[in-house]
Amino acid sequence: MATNNIIPVKDFEIKSDQVFFPDNNFWMFLYCPIAGYEQKKQESASKFFAYLLSRKNMIAINSLIISEFTNASLRLDYSFWKEENQKSGNVYKKEYFQTDRAKNMRLLISDSVKKILRVATRFPDSFNNSNMDSILSVYRDHVDYNDSVIYHDCKRHNWILVTNDRDSDFFTDIVIAKI
């Protein structure tokens, strides 16, 4: 089995026919409505994003990434809310979710999703065509389920994965632009 090609985004040379599939962490660095999140990585992702846009390369996205983005953004705010309100335990749905703060955060997150969808091309998740044995094998051996699905989509479509996720170091046979 061949090894993957992990290339830091600062060294990545984009070719016109390449399609890029940014993982959720890329979108979090660019569009998460909570400021100051890993500033150096934000700058690196922003520069690479501008490079992608200037080259007019296709940026692929699916509903899995949107789901991860919306959930991670809201959960991040929830963790701040819990700390600010000195809450313990899991009070996400019971106390936080219906607060005005959470409703306002969901509006901000929705605006961010709209911005993402203006620059990315939507692709179906193709669950009905997925090789579940292969996905579950990678899931059992290396990474979480979503990352396994992302790996298989990138491999199937010959997309370049843009990520900061260390789990991607286990992926084989794909090119990775590492933030």
* Helicity range: 40-55%
Distinct helical segment count: 7
**Which consecutive residue ranges, at least 5 long each, have pLDDT under 50?**
none
CATH class: Alpha Beta
Whole-number count of domains: 1
Rg (C-alpha, Å): 17 Å
- For this structure, the CATH topology is Rossmann fold
Q: For this structure, what is the CATH homologous superfamily?
A: 5'-nuclease
Number of strands: 6
Structural class based on helices, strands and sheet pairing:
alpha/beta
Q: Numbering strands along the chain, what is their spatial order in the largest sheet?
A: 1-6-5-2-3-4
Largest sheet: 6 strands, parallel
Mean model confidence by pLDDT: 92
Distance between the termini: 25 Å
- Report the CATH architecture: 3-Layer(aba) Sandwich
Any key phrases for this structure?
alpha/beta, 7 helices
What is this structure's SSE topology?
Blueprint: E1 5-8, E2 19-22, H1 24-31, H2 39-55, E3 58-61, H3 63-84, H4 92-96, H5 100-119, E4 121-122, H6 132-141, H7 145-157, E5 160-163, E6 175-178
Parallel strand pairs: 1-6, 2-3, 2-5, 3-4, 5-6
Helix pairs in contact: 1-3, 3-5, 6-7
